[in-house]
Write a structure and sequence with these properties.
217 residues, alpha+beta, Immunoglobulin-like, six-stranded antiparallel β-sheet
């Protein structure tokens, strides 16, 4: 039924949007040039292939090195920036320049997919694909998400905590135009959460950047 919304158990595969970072040509070469001396094919964090990067769990953080959609929750991104909260910055003797750090961060925020696939730019239409804002923010226990769609679409929302763990999933069909969704986190502790939206409209798939929301009890 159109307009119906339900909590689901699986999040759809994360696609990439127009102008997104391509892993094989922009990210893996950085790892090859600067990281494989320490993280070539070892246990823990191994950066010599996409599959091993995504499967890596570092001993210092005890969680997956890459948290798709949130660079701030990803130990890999945290460790390549100055003054990480655990351990030393990587690579230790030749830190990455800011351009490379930004590329890796953008790749993670865009969903950490293996390859970039361009999709149609719908920004010129009266309504575009966008995760707009939420109100109130901070909130307790519920907040309303505003978003817009250029066409009728099947939309999935993923709500994650600061560590990147999924705490809520919502999916349903929505008409084109500006729409709203109420997210309730009354059973969750106070803190910063992120919301990501993915929409399937015909044969096109769109995915938003992560939006931060703050629960204060």
């Amino acid at each position: 039924m159109k307009g119906a919304l339900w909590i689901c158990s699986l999040f759809m595969t994360a696609p990439l949007c127009m102008s997104q970072v391509d892993y094989s040509t922009q990210v893996q070469p950085v790892f090859n040039a600067s990281c494989l001396g320490c993280h070539g094919n070892t246990s823990g964090v191994s950066l010599n292939s996409y599959a091993k990067v995504m499967a890596s769990v570092g001993s210092q953080f005890g969680t997956a090195a890459v948290q798709p959609g949130s660079k701030e929750s990803s130990p890999l991104w945290i460790k390549i920036n100055p003054n990480p909260p655990i351990g030393v910055r990587m690579p230790p003797n030749n830190p990455l320049d800011q351009t490379k750090i930004d590329i890796i961060g953008q790749w993670i925020d865009e969903g950490a997919s293996e390859s970039a696939t361009a999709v149609e730019d719908l920004s010129g239409q009266p309504f575009r694909f966008a995760l707009i804002d939420n109100y109130p923010n901070p909130f307790n226990p519920a907040t309303t998400i505003r978003f817009s769609l250029p066409d009728e679409a099947f939309v999935t929302f993923q709500v994650c905590d600061i560590r990147g763990a999924v705490v809520n999933l919502y999916s349903g069909y929505f008409q084109s135009g500006e729409q709203v969704l109420t997210i309730r986190l009354g059973d969750r502790p106070s803190g910063l959460y992120t919301v990501r939206m993915q929409a399937l409209a015909g044969n096109k798939t769109f995915r938003s950047r992560a939006m931060k929301i703050l629960l204060l009890k």
